[in-house]
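Homework help board

Subject: predicted structure for assignment chain

Our instructor gave us this sequence and asked us to write out the predicted structure in token form, then describe one feature. I got the tokens but I'm not sure how to describe them. Can anyone check?
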Amino acid sequence: MHIPDGFINGATSAGFGVAAAGGVGAALRQTGKYLSERQVPLAGLVAAFVFAAQMVNFPVVSGMSGHLLGGVLAAVLVGPWAGFVVVAVVLLVQGIFFADGGLSALGLNIVNLGFIGAVGGYAIYRALLRALPKNQRGVIVSAGIAAGIAVPLAALGFVIQYAIGGTVDISMGTVLTAMLGTHVLIGIGEGIITAFVIAAVVRSRPDLVYGAPQYTGVRTEVLS
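My token output:
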């Protein structure tokens, strides 16, 4: 889902760039309020996992690719705002050193993968967990389903951006069908992977999982 340079016009890219910069600033302030010293190494590991996952690309339409997002996984492990920062940093590194996603489109990608994928995905996770038993199975199932839903939602974010300022001669119908069709399938895979990873962590070190409910010993306000 990395958007390359020139796929969205300059005005739209700039607008989303400003929004993304403001979002990252707000996320950094929120992250500083809750991220403990013992969670910082975990955030680094999550960033490495997300980086590796996003480097595996699947072609969608000309100039566009799809890939695993990792936003919900990051948000459940280290919190939605730290997850947002993790995804933003990964996208910046990929854009600068690997030319994976255009730098002029960085704001677009951060909004889609970071805000919609991580923060929005975490909101879905919390909603699901309220409806499911607040135990290990509930955490695992909620995280997996939320991850699966967040991927096509992030793809829909791109479709909206393309409708606002797309510059490539591809019909909206083609873009919508290709993006959602591909990312629904990617979402299924991401949901399964996220569930397996969360299961391994929550069963061995539930105290390190930000998004686990009170029974694990994590702060009670997490699910308030």
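Reply (TA_rk): Your tokens look well-formed. For the description, you could write something like this. The beta strands are 57-59, 65-67. That's the kind of observation they're looking for.
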